[in-house]
Specification:
alpha/beta; Rossmann fold; formyl-coa transferase, domain 3; six-stranded parallel beta sheet; 15% strand; elongated
Length: 395
């Protein structure tokens, strides 16, 4: 069984930040040869600090790097020659940017009719498509920040959810287009966008309003469909999430924790009864649970087969026993910054193929690490490559 089903597929990626690189990483992890085209001074995410310091090493593994100055005629020509050999081209620059260099779908598909061309944007074509979008921009305008924060206090989600999912939807569209190409022999252009991705994420809340006529409340203020579905502060100030989402689970919950009186209370027998009594019930449980440590509660809930979750920080997951045991983390070598050359753990995609995880074949590339190899692969001679490097059209 081939655990890299896209082996033999060639992808040229003109991307930066998170959305575009995520799309390319999906294809790369599945075995495609993904060639990342960087500007002469390199992808800017290589030098980000703070919350952006992990962008490049996370989203650019399993790729090759070539640096091209698209603003030069020779550089743009080299890029077009590269695209003529590709199965897929992906880009996430502002609308119209690729047209300037003859790297848009209309131009490239003339020379390569089987090409799949993915445009990853802030907005699909329409009234907003001229705007500059960021993950946080579309979270704010698309209702996600409103739903995440407390009333009157919009709060972005704690990860680049639209960038990452937008890239994944782009990859899904590419895979669909590749299947269609196998049938028709023709390529096509596909598009994915941050804003539309965000709208998909809040679709459940939009449907709630459409069905009931009642606006969805922000998640911290929502009316929960279950009474026991919350974070509790327990012994020594520790916190743990506990849930009981059916009448059967409620009985098991009471048995596991020794709450026979609550189990026998007829006013708490049914889920909707407990929901109506939720403020009183949570206050009472809050008092009773303070005698337990978070670990004690976790053991009781696990033994009873009930939903629970310790409140974990991202850094704690690097030693998570499940991730370690199941191969959910893999080693990569850093290529930029003060820790260049260091080996660290990275996360893998959450799926298996015939029981195998898609792992790391190539470390995140150094700037222009594969320039000569890639250009030679499309027929340029060593002398021609030297000329391009000397003229700073490529690096």
């Amino acid at each position: 069984m081939n655990h890299q089903p896209l082996t033999g597929l060639k992808v040229v990626e003109f991307t930066h930040m998170v959305m575009g690189p995520t799309c390319g990483m999906v294809l790369a992890d599945l075995g495609a040869e993904v060639i990342k085209v960087e500007p002469i001074d390199g992808d800017r995410t290589r030098t980000l600090l703070g919350a952006g310091i992990g962008f490049f090493p996370l989203f650019n593994r399993n790729k090759k790097s070539i640096q091209i100055d698209l603003t030069t005629a020779a550089g743009a020509a080299a890029a077009r020659r590269l695209c003529a050999s590709a199965d897929v081209v992906a880009e996430n620059f502002k609308p119209g940017s690729m047209v300037k260099y003859g790297l848009d779908y209309a131009a490239l598909s003339k020379a390569n009719p089987k090409l799949i061309y993915a445009s990853l944007k802030g907005f699909l074509p329409g009234p907003y498509d001229h705007r500059t979008a960021l993950d946080e921009v579309v979270q704010m305008m698309g209702g996600l920040a409103y739903m995440t924060g407390r009333p009157g206090d919009p709060l972005r989600a704690g990860s680049s959810v639209n960038d990452i999912m937008g890239g994944m939807f782009g990859a899904i569209a590419i895979l669909g287009a590749l299947i269609q190409r196998g049938i028709s022999g023709k390529g096509m252009e596909v598009q994915a966008a941050l804003y539309e991705n965000n709208i998909f994420l809040v679709g459940q809340h939009m449907l709630q309003y459409a069905i009931t006529g009642q606006p969805a409340a922000p998640m911290p203020a929502r009316i929960s469909p279950w009474a026991i579905y919350d974070v509790f502060t327990v012994k020594d100030g520790e916190q743990i999430f506990l849930a009981a989402v059916s009448d059967g689970q409620w009985l098991t919950f009471c048995d596991a924790l020794g709450f026979a009186d609550l189990k026998a209370d007829p006013a708490l027998k049914l889920n909707n009864d407990r929901v109506r009594a939720r403020p009183r019930l949570l206050a009472e449980l809050g008092k009773r649970l303070k005698v337990f440590s978070a670990d004690q509660l976790a053991q009781k809930m696990e033994a009873a087969g009930l939903p629970f979750a310790p409140i974990r920080k991202p850094e704690e997951l690097l030693d998570d026993p499940h991730l370690v045991a199941t191969g959910g983390l893999a080693d990569i070598q850093l290529t930029d910054g003060e820790r260049a050359g260091a080996t660290v753990k990275t996360t893998l995609f959450p799926f298996t193929l015939d029981g195998e995880r898609s792992g790391v074949r190539l470390n995140p590339p150094k700037r222009g690490e594969h320039t000569r190899e890639v250009l030679a692969g499309v027929g340029l001679t060593p002398g021609e490559i030297d000329t391009l490097i000397e003229s700073k059209c490529v690096a």
